Amino acid sequence: MSIDTIDRIRDEVINCRLCSLCKNRTNAVPGEGNFKASIMFVGEAPGRNEDEKGRPFVGLAGKILDETLAKVGIVRSRIFVTNIVKCRPPQNRVPTEDERRVCCKYLDRELSIISPRIICVLGRTAFQSLIGVGNILANRGKLIEKDRKLFFITIHPAAIIYNNKLRCTLEKDMQTLVSECKRLNIPI
Ligand code: URA
Q1: Domain annotation covers residue 1
Q2: pLDDT tens digits, residue range 77-116?
Q3: From the CA of 102, how far away is ligand 1's center (Å)?
Q4: Tens digits of per-residue pLDDT, 122-139?
């Protein structure tokens, strides 16, 4: 069996026709970043800007993510950023369970190759897809171990577009993530 690589996943994602989201996309959006990242950030699905550019978190939610990371001293080029679903759902609707199930195979492969020490779960869709049980609000700001993987739960940066008061929540959680990395000797 040949060795899987991030480049191979990228090629497959770009040409993927496994679900109907491929019909309306401009570009599929594979994960990107540092292949040796100790933290992988996982969002929901690309939005309009990401669909146009073929890159994750490059629109307004991405700007908020970048600002928050910078504030707590996480350098974006040192992490890996990806989504549960790699193509933009029409009108940015929440991806269906079928779309998530089919597309999560790419995420599983990204996870196996990068093997991050912590998977940072951004928002409800990623929480439901990766953790499955429980309530995101009861778990945000916390580390959860599941299937021998370590997840850190926080809100989606896009939530701040609709409610600016949540900016403090995201910043506080990211500070906690940095503290947990220090406590666990995880380089960031
Ligand atoms: N929202 C997401 O969940 N992912 C992106 O890449 C952009 C916005």
Answers
A1: no
A2: 999 999 999 999 999 999 999 999 999 999 999 999 999 9
A3: 18
A4: 999 999 999 999 999 999
| 20-76 pLDDT tens trace | 999 999 999 999 999 999 999 999 999 999 999 999 999 999 999 999 999 999 999
Q: What's the CA-to-centroid distance between 89 and ligand 1, angstroms?
A: 11
Residue 85's domain spans which residues?
A: 6-183
CA of 148 to the centre of ligand 1 (A): 26
For residue 188, being part of any structural domain is answered with: no
Does 98 map to a domain?
A: yes
Ligand 1 pocket, residue 28 CB under 6 Å:
no
CATH at 44? 3.40.470.10
Q: Provide the domain count of the chain.
A: 1
Secondary structure, 3-state, the chain: CCCCCHHHHHHHHHCCCCCHHHHCCCCCCCCEECCCCCEEEEECCCCHHHHHHCCCCCCHHHHHHHHHHHHHCCCHHHCEEEECCCCCCHHHCCCCHHHHHHHHHHHHHHHHHHCCCEEEEECHHHHHHHCCCCCHHHHCCCEEEECCEEEEEECCCCHHHHCCCHHHHHHHHHHHHHHHHHHCCCCC
